[in-house]
Specification:
transferase, CoA-transferase_III, 411 residues, 13 strands, alpha/beta, Formyl-CoA transferase, Rossmann fold, formyl-coa transferase, domain 3, six-stranded parallel β-sheet, single chain, three-stranded antiparallel β-sheet, transferase activity, 2 domains, elongated
Length: 411
């Protein structure tokens, strides 16, 4: 496990310069999609200024399990950010936000389409003051189209994108993946868009642009052969539980003390798998030499594997399959991850100190760059903790800041 990260500190001595050092990001989103994108950019050196509503701030501060009154999820989602509490519904708050955006490289927002325009922050207005600005807009259905104005959350995007229909056992209710995967996929697509736009701006004359990410489109982009199969064959892919339809064998199999995932779908891997479970007859069967033949007899193959795993413990199965060079793994819980030596060896478990002085185990940084790696430079801020410092950087005087505070525009 990596050493503890201080609550707020500059980049540690000896750490290589980060890829996005010097990039200023203003984050105006809340909850998951926009802020996850901001977190991703912040992990790689961007200076992320998060604008939150005065009062309660980002609702994520109170989501799921709380420690000292604050969500532990917040500690991950908002590391490497500075918090400015600002009333964007007030004209003075909007003007203050425009001043911050005028000095930024990137603006992230995930409000309902049209909200920026209502606040006098339409892209053309922001570009007039800051031509190089990159504006990332994440919404349920995008900034155009007939569904543009409908309310959209990640779960709806997962359904419309085609994912939710497949996440079920055949004939049973579609279930959610277990995390907010629609929001996260949109955030990652947004981060890719920002990086592409930054590259284009640097290489082609300094112009900014608008990035339009819809939640359902980000999900749909990951749906593999779903539409080509429908187009070519009229095939509507249906739920298949833990199996991978059309690829065999690849499934979850019961053990005496849990489940294992086994991916034996390579031709040579399949032969090694069958030898390992004592079924060389299947491994040498000419009909099962390629994936097409195995798919036709997948029920028989799954039954053979399941009969073998059911007589053994998970550790026994994994040891035997590792020796046979067959991809397999246990179904990890949070405890499994926290105690796993491979996670620890690759710095995927960091001990981060909160602003209240508590130490908290948090996920590490992905991806891993050899020359400009990511780093946790500071832990998640308290609401409005950086308001004064950021406004001073934007050119406001102490008198102006005091006036805004007296009027309830900032906190």
């Amino acid at each position: 496990m990596a050493d503890a990260i201080p609550a707020a500190a500059p980049q540690p001595q000896g750490i290589a310069p980060q890829a996005l050092a010097g990039v200023r990001v203003v984050e105006m989103g809340q909850l998951i999609a926009g802020p996850f994108c901001g977190k991703t950019l912040g992990d790689f050196g961007a200076d992320v200024v998060k604008i939150e509503a005065v009062g309660e701030g980002d609702p994520l501060r109170k989501w799921r399990l709380l420690q000292d009154g604050t969500s532990v999820w917040w500690q991950v989602q908002s590391r490497n950010k500075r918090s400015v509490a600002l009333d964007l519904r007030a004209s003075e708050g909007q003007e203050t936000a425009r001043r911050l955006i005028a000095e930024a490289d990137v603006l992230i927002e995930n409000f309902r389409p049209g909200t920026l325009e209502e606040w006098g922050m339409a892209p053309e207005q922001l570009h007039a003051a800051n031509p190089g600005l990159i504006i990332l807009r994440i919404s349920g259905y995008g900034q155009t189209g007939p569904y543009r104005d409908l309310p959209g959350f990640g779960v709806v995007g997962e359904a419309m994108g085609g994912l939710r229909h497949l996440t079920a056992e055949p004939g049973r209710v579609p279930v959610r993946v277990g995390v907010s995967i629609g929001d996260t996929l949109a955030a990652l697509h947004g981060a890719i868009g920002v990086l592409l736009a930054l590259y284009h701006r640097a290489a082609h004359g300094g112009a900014g642009q608008v990035i339009d990410v819809a939640l359902h489109e980000a999900v749909f982009n990951c749906m593999e052969s779903l539409i080509p199969e429908y187009s070519a064959f009229g095939a509507v892919r249906e739920p298949a539980g833990s199996a991978l339809p059309g690829i065999a064998p690849s499934n979850a199999y019961p053990c005496q003390d849990g489940w294992v995932l086994v991916a034996g779908n390579g031709d040579s891997i399949f032969k090694r798998l069958m030898a390992a479970i004592g079924r060389p007859d299947l491994g040498e069967d000419a009909q099962l030499a390629d994936n097409t033949g195995r798919v036709a007899r997948v029920v028989e193959i799954d039954a053979a594997i399941g009969a073998w795993t059911a007589e053994r413990r998970v550790d026994e199965v994994l040891e035997a399959l590792a020796a046979a060079r067959v991809p397999a793994g246990r179904v990890y819980t949070a405890r499994d991850i926290a105690e796993d030596p491979h996670y620890q060896a690759r710095d995927m478990l960091l001990t981060q100190r909160t602003r209240d002085g508590r130490e908290l185990l948090v996920p590490g940084i992905v991806p891993k760059l050899s020359s400009t790696p990511g780093a946790v430079r500071s832990s998640a801020p308290r609401l409005g903790e950086d308001t004064d410092a950021v406004l001073v950087e934007a050119g406001l005087t102490q008198e102006q800041i005091a006036l805004l505070r007296s009027r309830g525009v900032i906190r």
